[in-house]
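[job 4471] stage=fold_predict status=RUNNING
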Amino acid sequence: MRRVVFNQKGGVGKTSITCNLAAIGAAMGYRTLVVDLDVQGNTTHYLVGEIDAEAFPAEAQGVAGLFKQTVGSRRMRQNPDSFVWETPYENLYLMLSDNIHFWYEKRLLVPPAHSWEFVQLGNCGSPIETEAGWLAIYHGVKYVVGDPIYRLGAALLDREKPHRLIGRARRWLLGPSEPYERSGDAPNVVFASGGFVRGDDLWIYYGAADSCICLATAKLAEVLSLVTSD
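[job 4471] inference complete, writing structure tokens
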């Protein structure tokens, strides 16, 4: 089982979600590995703590020091044991890497098409594999009276050719409506950190107004129907 938590917006709970999901898995007896790709290294500091500068001079430089060993997808110069750290938590391990792959080709997948997303579009975690294709959750931004409103949209990509767009929802899946979504450090902002399918349901973790972490669920079949029918 693999879980990916990432996006480029701060304060949406990536570190908290990652560390707590890992801790729960480890506590249940699963051998758990966390891979920290964030240049700030917050997850690393949370799980490993302060590093002894005398015992580990390179690592004490921060995440840049820990990135001395770069792991490629096809070849490794060192045994994984040399760059996998055991944490103080039973069954939980941490691996660090920096730019494992490089991407030079880019293709336009989901251009702005609706008024609620004209200002900005952005990714919200890894696409979610389904029988119908890859479900991509993204955020769209619109300005109202000078202030941004962030909403979540969805698009479906071909399973074999993920650069091909199959369909997308005309309206947003989730927008700020609750008091904790409309009021906070960043009012009227819902920003997803990642999602996954559990049984027949789609689960999405998201930050609300940069002030709290929330969970939204929906029937996967209904979401896929919405994406393909629009």
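[job 4471] summary: The CA atoms of residues 54 and 60 lie 8 Å apart.
[job 4471] exit 0
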